[in-house]
Amino acid sequence: MTKDGYATPATLHVLIADDHTLILEIIGMVLENTPDIQLRTALSVDGAEELLNRYGSFDLILLDLDMPGMRGVETLIRMISLNGDKPVGIITGNPTPRLIDEMMKNGAAGVIPKTSSMKSLVNAIRFMAAGERYFPLELMQEQNVIRQANPSPLSERETSVLVKLAEGLPNREIGDALGLAEATVKMHVKSICRKLGVQNRTQAVIAARNLKLV
Asked: Is residue 1 part of a domain?
């Protein structure tokens, strides 16, 4: 209890993994003055997993989308499982509509742009740790506008394969990540190339990015 009779807020145990040391130091300095949040940090996915093994699950994990060992949705799903299904969110400097859509579909607690203010970050941490989903309104609005202007010619499964292509994964690893046979992945890649009017997977990724599909 506090001196004025109110209950002391429960401490939130938060893990943030980002390979930019300066970002982690700045966040740490801010959260030092936030008594209800206890922060631990890692510089990679492997480092985050080591802390999970050492300390158990966290009330919230935030993962930098571009750090070593990060493989998009595949890593998100694995970290949610390792964290006992507790919230796992994404931090990124480039929150595209396609990213928002993929993360929402695969259980992310939210997506925080690196352009967010520290006050917004703290509020987002509390919000996600409470079991809510945090996707900034302006990102959702942009996503809806782009969807309406550029309806995708691809099926949902083809889009999932395309996202993995954009991550640079070979067909076998795409199949492992999506639960598909390698031959099925090859079939989807051919269909993607045909629908986008390109000759190969590299061109497909370039065309998809131009169309804001990934």
From this structure: no
